[in-house]
Amino acid sequence: MGERAVEELCAELIRFDTTNLGAGESRGEREAAEHVAAHLTDAGLTPTLLERSPRRSNVVARVPGTDSSLPPLLVHAHLDVVPADPTEWTVPPFAGEIRDGFVWGRGAVDMKDMCATLLTVLARWSAAGTAPRRDIVLAFVADEEDQGAWGAHWLVDEHRELFEDCAAAIGESGGYTVRASTAAGDPIRLYPVGTAERGTSHLRLTATGRAGHGSRRNDDNAVTKLVNALSSGPCTSPRRCAGSSTRRARPSASRSTSTTWTPLSAASAPPRRSSRTRSATAPPRRCCRRATR
Ligand SMILES: [Zn+2]
User: Fold this and answer.
1) For domain 6-170, which CATH number applies: 3.40.50.300, 3.40.630.10, 2.40.30.10, 3.90.180.10?
2) Please, which of 6, 58, 175, 280 could form a disulfide with 192 given CB 3.0 to 4.6 Å?
3) pLDDT in tens, 218-247
4) Which of 113, 135, 144, 145 is the catalytic position?
């Protein structure tokens, strides 16, 4: 296949419509996985395709390091994307256009860009005969945009041996571009690195106020207090949502003195619904970062 420019490779991956429709339904993951596997094979690796059910494909490969005493590093990315309605886009979401110096399309940010970056690095290592110090386990997974039941979740349940000696993992969601300046005033871009896994925080919010009719002004409205508390909380904008380790939920930031935030304990948190119990019409899980994809 030969080495491709990273932006061309990213655009190529975008052209695989890998929409995750939720509730176990998806498109195109196998075609994308086979394409990634071909690039990995080209880079001298031996990729394995793993599927819990037909067409929900994951690709795993191992890059041998030069020091086998070091524990491997897991680098993982997902190949599925959230749905895109072409009528809401100024470019066809799966055309993979490169225009004005930018790659356009669903997945350009989340996260076929990283898939393309990884494949480009591997191609360059292969061409240069370079190897990393430690083994690197690569996982390109399905179903990240829903619940991972056909992807990462299933892989660690059923193919634990592929990852069990890995000491650390690198994935997505480190942070978004922060525009700053050097001491000399030159503009620079900073890319924060998140150092923990983002997760779900269940909160129980209690607000008190005075009951009343919607047609009458009520300055002691419990619902308003809850909305204000949520808008000062952890997940109301792409910026706030990025970098979970640096922007943790801060219940004390509530603007309402009569609203209390209570993180639910694991015991009291609602159980995570398996995809088998999801409603057929339930939309895929998405975090509020979707606004930036
Ligand atoms: Zn993602």
Assistant:
1) 3.40.630.10
2) 175
3) 999 999 999 998 888 655 444 433 333 333
4) 144
